[in-house]
Design goal:
By secondary structure, the chain is mainly alpha-helical. It contains 7 helices and no strands.
C-alpha cells in the first residue's frame, strides 16, 4: 500500500527535528560535557549513552509510525510529545526572560514546534485511513 502524503510529511518533519537536534548537539557538545564533568554527579559516559538510547527510541518510533503504520506507536509518540510540551511550558514559567534569550532554547522551541506539526499530520484523514490499513488513494483499491 502506498504511503499517504501526510505520512510522508510527518517523516520529513521528524527527520528535520533529528537533523536540527544533531547540529545543536555538535555545537554544544563540549559545553555540555564540561557542565556534566563540573557537577561530579554523572559519569563521563552518561551523555553518549543517553544520546544512543534516545536516538534508538526515536528511530524505532519513526519506523513503526512511518513504515509500518502502527497506531499504538503513533499514540506513544503523541504522549511523549505531550510530556515534552509540559516540560517546555514549565521552563517558560520558571524563568521566561532567561530562556527566551538563549539560542539553544530557541532551537528547542523550533524543534518542539516542528514535532507538533509532524504530529498534526498523523491525524489527517489520509493518515488515519493508512493507520487502519485502508486504501489511501484510488490506486490502492485495484492492487
Amino acid at each position: 500500500m502506498k504511503r499517504p502524503q501526510s505520512i510522508i510529511w510527518f517523516e520529513r518533519l521528524f527527520f528535520a527535528v533529528l537533523v536540527i537536534s544533531l547540529i545543536q548537539l555538535y555545537f554544544s557538545w563540549s559545553t555540555t560535557q564540561a557542565t556534566i564533568a563540573a557537577t561530579h554527579v554523572l559519569p563521563s559516559w552518561y551523555l553518549p549513552v543517553v544520546l544512543v538510547v534516545s536516538w534508538a527510541i526515536n528511530l524505532t518510533l519513526w519506523y513503526f509510525i512511518a513504515r509500518r503504520g502502527s497506531n499504538v506507536t503513533k499514540w506513544i509518540y503523541v504522549v511523549l510529545l505531550a510530556i515534552g510540551l509540559i516540560g517546555v511550558a514549565a521552563s517558560l514559567f520558571r524563568q521566561p526572560a532567561l530562556h527566551v534569550a538563549s539560542s539553544e532554547r530557541l532551537v528547542g522551541y523550533l524543534t518542539t514546534f516542528l514535532s507538533v506539526v509532524s504530529a498534526y499530520f498523523l491525524f489527517r484523514p489520509d493518515a488515519r485511513a493508512w493507520f487502519r490499513g485502508e486504501p489511501t488513494d484510488i490506486g490502492d483499491i485495484f492492487r
